[in-house]
UniProtKB/TrEMBL annotation, chains A, B:
GO molecular function, one term: DNA-directed DNA polymerase activity
Residue stretches in coiled coil: none
This protein's name: Beta sliding clamp
Subunit-level organization: Forms a ring-shaped head-to-tail homodimer around DNA.
Keyword Transferase: yes
Family, as annotated: Belongs to the beta sliding clamp family.
Domain DNA polymerase III beta sliding clamp C-terminal: 256-378
Highest taxon listed in the record's lineage: Bacteria
Keyword Transferase: yes
Classification via Pfam families: DNA_pol3_beta, DNA_pol3_beta_2, DNA_pol3_beta_3
Alphabetical UniProt keywords: Cytoplasm, DNA replication, DNA-binding, DNA-directed DNA polymerase, Nucleotidyltransferase, Transferase
Length: 380, 380
């Protein structure tokens, strides 16, 4: 194998592939990144066997030559070390040559590295994604769906299924739900189905995969193609493939958790309210409970407070835009509230309470595709 | 105690004082920061008993009112928590009131924190610095002296005296030396002595203190006043006092370590050479030895290389500006070389060798106040 390649493109592709490479792995070759050079260009693959990321560098793009293939072939190189090496190379072009015994020569200007590579034949095959169902989704919308739900997955392995985000697709309507059983985040969106076979899907994508996917999706507005099979999902962007294993098992039915009526509705300026909660959370966190209190007062005022016998107390009054219905006095986890408010990202939010002991929901008038639910903490 | 204060100034002073506050301490009150409000302004003090930092906020500066003292007094507040609290406050002005039992009310806009404070009477007294010798030094020069030496102190407590930088002052001439016994950094400078009593000083300032001092020195060009006593040094900048304990014990005589003759002199472009060493160091680090080789070749070329049986090899040829004297083939620690080159910070450097087994020195023609010495590693 021998090729010349534009350094910046190689760095970008290696960084993308590197996001799938685990620091520790039980399959030794997976500490490596695989390079395949053929007559189309160079493909860079990283995997931890749950996630596989493949970044492609075409021979030419927009009339600019990116790769010159002298001899096709494949090699696996130690991922982290190689990614450091190429970042430090002196010239704009890198020459990569594989000799006997997988000995790989990386040359740029006067600098020459001889790196002991590994046999690409030993590298696991990609998942086979052929007969899955295809959907298409704008890049921005996919990012929103992920950001507005993934933070709510469980970080505990007690119920592994809750470490993923549940995607239900029916007639191209996607409902994404994540819950750690203390809070729930839901987002709805419309996909473009390429094959309207009317089939519905219920899959659970690991939260970790979605977080990594966020990092490799670029700023472009090209739609992302998705293919769903039994145990894999593939996201396909320009020059990028992102495979993730799906979680096995049945996701709990969350629809009944969401209250449909409410006894108190408080509408708030989102920024003012978030800042007040954030200030109260400082003390709540320091006091280890992480609990803050929300109390409706006279004149549409809301009192946000937190108390810790060792540290002290914080109280702040926030004027609501409107407060309707019964008085309420409720406690909740400060961090979960902050996460929910950041996910909604509107200028005004409404909180719908049905009682001190009941879950409550947060929505915004501007965007009914998103819903956040919190369970109260019992302190009263 | 009660005062109103500009939030930004309070944040800055607390951040400075916080740099002296240890995360863990055997003296419980030192997790706090002390505030003293008197008719001149507010003094903010943090200490870990080795380092004490005191930042002063005057009532007025450049015609702008910074503090309004309603009632003088003192209080100690938990340092890290308080510094988080004030950063999040909503308004530009903060009101701080101490009530009974050291209960402290921090108010800004609608937000109110009640923080349980500690008795300022329990806080240790500042070191007494009265009869020391005084010197003055430009801010920039003080920073250079620190940056060009402190990285070479020992990080091991085997010989505690080597964890400090040795300052020798004679007739206002300062020589600063740091060594961890594998390398040595030396910087010379001229101080302004305010009291020319002809006394010479030989003190050892903890490396940690100098690193913290670097962080609190601002960009201004006002000279720094220094006062040296038996066991303390005080740096005095505008509105800032920085006290450090001195290390006890006798610093080794390092003057005999520095070779005075040389058999090979190699002059190099500093940037080109640093980049080549940096590239070789990648492999040296990955191979765990951290050793790279330096070999003079024909035509004034220098070969920089590193080899690891598990990882591979790196070779790079750098053209020297000139190579005089005997051929040389020498190995050294890559990180130490990089540290030394970064400290010198010139466009051209010269390396003076006296043999494969002998220490060698690095200097620049542009600035003879700085010298870096490295011991070779025996690999040949």
């Amino acid at each position: 194998m021998k090729f010349y390649i534009k350094k910046e493109r190689l760095i970008k592709s290696v960084q993308d592939a590197l996001k799938a490479v685990a620091v520790r792995t039980t399959i030794p070759i997976l500490v490596g990144i695989k390079f395949d050079a053929d007559d189309r260009g160079v493909t860079v693959t990283g995997s931890d066997s749950d996630i596989t990321i493949q970044s492609f560098i075409p021979k030419e793009e927009d009339g600019e030559e990116l790769v010159e293939i002298v001899e096709p072939g494949s090699i696996v190189l130690q991922a982290r070390f190689f990614s450091e090496v190429i970042k430090k190379l002196p010239e704009l072009i890198v020459e990569i040559t594989v000799e006997d015994q997988f000995k790989t020569i990386v040359r740029s200007g006067n600098a020459e590295y001889i790196i002991l590579g590994l046999d690409a034949e030993e590298y696991p095959r990609l998942p086979i994604i052929e007969d899955g169902d295809h959907f298409s989704i704008p890049n921005d919308l996919l990012k929103s769906i992920i950001k507005q739900t993934v933070f709510a997955v469980s970080t505990s392995e007690t119920r592994p299924i809750l470490t993923g985000v549940h995607w239900m697709i029916e007639d191209s309507q996607l409902t994404a739900v994540a819950t750690d059983s203390h809070r729930l985040a839901m987002k709805q969106a419309t996909l473009q189905s390429e094959e309207r076979n009317g089939k519905s899907h219920s899959i659970v994508i690991p939260g970790k995969s979605l977080n990594e996917l966020l990092k490799v999706l670029d700023e472009s507005n090209e739609p992302i193609q998705m293919t769903i099979t039994n145990n894999q999902i593939l996201f396909r962007a320009k020059n990028l493939l992102f495979f993730s294993r799906l979680l096995e098992g049945k996701y709990p039915d969350t629809s009944k958790l969401i209250p449909t009526d409410s006894k108190t509705i408080v509408k708030l300026n989102a920024k003012e309210y978030l800042e007040a909660v954030d200030r109260a959370s400082l003390l709540a966190r320091e006091g280890k409970t992480n609990v803050i209190k929300f109390t409706t007062m006279d004149d549409d005022m809301i009192e946000i407070s937190s108390y810790s016998p060792e540290i002290g107390k914080v109280v702040e009054n926030v004027k609501s835009i409107s407060t309707e219905g019964e008085e309420i006095k409720i406690s909740f986890n400060a961090k979960y509230m902050i996460d929910a408010l950041r996910a909604i990202d509107g200028t005004e939010i409404s909180i719908y309470f049905t009682g001190t002991m009941r879950p409550f929901i947060i929505r915004t008038d501007y965007d009914d595709s998103i819903l956040q639910l919190l369970l109260p903490v019992r302190t009263f």
